[in-house]
Structures are given as C-alpha cells and as structure tokens.
C-alpha cells in the first residue's frame, strides 16, 4: 500500500470514529408525539431508542472498518444496509415526544429542524447503502462524510456527557 492508501485508511478511520460519536447522540434524543409518555412507558421508549442507537453505533463502526480496509470488502453492502435500516428505525423511534437522556430542550422547541436533520440522516444513509450495494467503496466513503453530519446535531441538540 502506497502513501496515498495509508492516508485514505487514516481518513476512513477518522470518519469511522466520528460516526461512532454521531450515533451516540441519537440514542439520547427524542422526536415528537401528541402527548408525552409518563413513567415506565417513557423509560421504555428511551431505552428502545438507546438500543437502536447502540446498534447503529456498532454498524457504523463496522462500516468504517470496511471502508478503511480493516475488514473484508464483501462486508461493505451488509454494513451500509444495516446503517441505513438503523437510521430509518431511529427516525421512527424519535417520533414520540419523550424528553430524556441527554437531549436538550431545543429538541422540542425546534422540533421541525431536529426532525429534518433526522430525515436527512436516514435519506443519506439509504443513498450510502445503495452505493455500497453497487460495490462503490469510494462513493460510500464520500457519502459517509457528507451524508452523516452528526456533529451539527450533537452541538445543537445534545447535552455533553457528564464525567
């Protein structure tokens, strides 16, 4: 592998690490619903979202490793498809208005923007999965950077992790 290959691998690793952080945000945020859930029901909804986002984090990590050449190329399409499915599940899971986790009040006061960002995430992840299914690793890498703007949402909608 030449110098260009090692630079691309390092860049892909950075993208994979950024994706891991991106998906952590989503596990702590909520969408909207007619009425907030209460008690055990709310805890269950938050827990379910956290599980979806934990799985998304694992799938994104795997996708990053495939793109970086650390896992076999035949894992590209399944890993990207898993991210796309998780992204869509996350949109659906955040439709209920259940504050909790690390979501800021802005998730609710600016829900239209939050929801639009979540939809963009799901749409972009689907485009990435289609590129992966076509075997286009370069396009997948390019879409990973542009299609998953996680930090933007984290900065606006997620509380910082407490030590």
Automatic annotation (TrEMBL):
Chain ranges passing through the membrane: none
Q: What is this protein called?
A: Cytochrome c
> What are the entry keywords?
Signal
Among PROSITE patterns, the record links this protein to: CYTCII
Asked whether the UniProt record includes Signal among its keywords, one would answer yes
Its lineage opens with:
Bacteria, Pseudomonadati, Pseudomonadota, Alphaproteobacteria, Sphingomonadales
What's the source species for this entry? Novosphingobium anseongense
Question: Which superkingdom is the protein from?
Answer: Bacteria
Look up keyword Chaperone and say if it applies: no
């Amino acid at each position: 592998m030449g110098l260009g290959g090692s630079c691309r691998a390092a860049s892909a690793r950075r993208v994979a690490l950024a994706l891991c952080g991106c998906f952590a945000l989503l596990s702590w945020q909520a969408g909207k619903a007619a009425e907030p859930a209460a008690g055990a029901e709310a805890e269950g909804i938050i827990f379910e979202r956290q599980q979806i986002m934990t799985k998304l984090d694992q799938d994104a990590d795997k996708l990053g490793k495939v793109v970086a050449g650390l896992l076999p190329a035949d894992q590209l399409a399944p890993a990207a498809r898993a991210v796309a499915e998780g992204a869509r599940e996350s949109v659906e899971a955040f439709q209920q208005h259940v504050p909790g986790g690390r979501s800021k009040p802005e998730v609710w006061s600016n829900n239209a923007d939050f929801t639009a960002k979540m939809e963009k995430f799901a749409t972009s992840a689907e485009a990435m999965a289609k590129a992966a299914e076509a075997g286009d690793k370069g396009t997948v890498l390019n879409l990973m950077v542009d299609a998953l703007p996680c930090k933007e949402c984290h900065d606006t909608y997620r509380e910082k992790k407490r030590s």
